[in-house]
Amino acid sequence: MKNVLYIFLILCFSLTISTCSVNWGSNKDDTTSGLFVSVGNSGTIIISSDGITWIFSNSGTSSNLWGINYGNSTFVTVGDSGTILTSSDGTSWDYRTSDVSSTLYGVTYGNSTFVTVGDNGTILTSSDGTSWDNRTSDVSSTLYGVTYGNSTFVTVGDNGTILTSSDGTTWTSRTSNTSKNLYGVIYGNSTFVTMGASGTILSSSDGTSWTSRTSGASDTLWGVIYGKSAYVVVVGTLGTVLTSSDLTTWTSRTSNTSNNLLEVTYKE
């Protein structure tokens, strides 16, 4: 199948969209058998079986929804004021009690555990998406992104904050050697990559030791993805698009837009 790179353009934060392509019976992305679920402002949830035709799904909340992920046969979306919703089909959503009032920005699934992160160092975990436990992060920084890879959870946030955990329960602060805000983190090609303010890009093989990469960009970088055989793409403010095959040399690409690019994803 032809490799396609999708870049989602979102103007002026009018709608924050996180999209999960879910496969019910295959390890390959297949829009004919999966489901796309997208979340955003004012409790907006839209779903699609093919990525072309979208319909609204009633979330039952007016809170902004910032992140979504899928695991253990369950969609989990998180947002303002500790909002957590779950669904088995993307259509019917149930409100879950988080017992926090912090905004939750990111959510991931790994090691049979959901982890969500947010304001004031908030970290919550759940095995089923229904019952959530508050974990001690020992930081007060806002945490924006979280991912799982190499048997390790990694979350990133304000002032260069990076935390890691093997189980989602006990977290260790790591030295990033930057004071810049970090907004997103992924794991691909056996490497963690995080990016953020002022063109900051860091990488790590284990989540513990991090190397600063020279991006050549000064704008904020919001989204990052791995695909097409060690091909990393980051997107950011004013239409910034950067690519690298080795994480060392970064090339600026022409996006033909000066609008902010906030997310990027990839489908083989």
Number of strands: 26
Biggest sheet strand line-up:
2-3-4-5
Helix content: under 10%
Structure class: mainly beta
> In terms of per-residue confidence, which ranges show pLDDT below 50 for 5 or more consecutive residues?
1-33
Largest sheet: 4 strands, antiparallel
Head-to-tail CA distance between termini? 7 Å
In the CATH hierarchy, what is the class of one domain?
A: Mainly Beta
CATH hierarchy: architecture of one domain: 6 Propeller
C-alpha-based Rg, rounded: 17 Å
Query: For the record, what is the CATH homologous superfamily label of one domain?
Result: Kelch-type beta propeller
* CATH topology name of one domain: Neuraminidase
**How would you state the average pLDDT, rounded?**
86
Task: Identify the notable features of this structure and list them briefly.
268 residues, mainly beta, 4-stranded antiparallel beta sheet, 26 strands, globular
Plain-language structure description:
The chain is mainly beta. The protein has a domain of 186 residues: 6 Propeller (Neuraminidase), CATH 2.120.10.80. The protein has no helices and 26 strands. A four-stranded antiparallel β-sheet has the order 2-3-4-5, with no helix packed on it. Strands 6-7-8-9 form a four-stranded antiparallel β-sheet, with no helix packed on it. The protein is globular and about 45 Å long. The N terminus is likely disordered.
Compact description:
It is built from no helices and 26 strands. The chain has 268 residues and is mainly beta. The N terminus is likely disordered.
Task: Write the topology of this structure.
Blueprint: E1 4-9, E2 18-22, E3 35-39, E4 45-48, E5 55-56, E6 65-71, E7 74-79, E8 84-87, E9 94-96, E10 104-110, E11 113-118, E12 123-126, E13 133-135, E14 143-149, E15 152-157, E16 162-165, E17 172-174, E18 182-188, E19 191-196, E20 201-204, E21 211-213, E22 221-227, E23 231-236, E24 241-244, E25 251-253, E26 261-267
Antiparallel strand pairs: 1-26, 2-3, 3-4, 4-5, 6-7, 7-8, 8-9, 10-11, 11-12, 12-13, 14-15, 15-16, 16-17, 18-19, 19-20, 20-21, 22-23, 23-24, 24-25
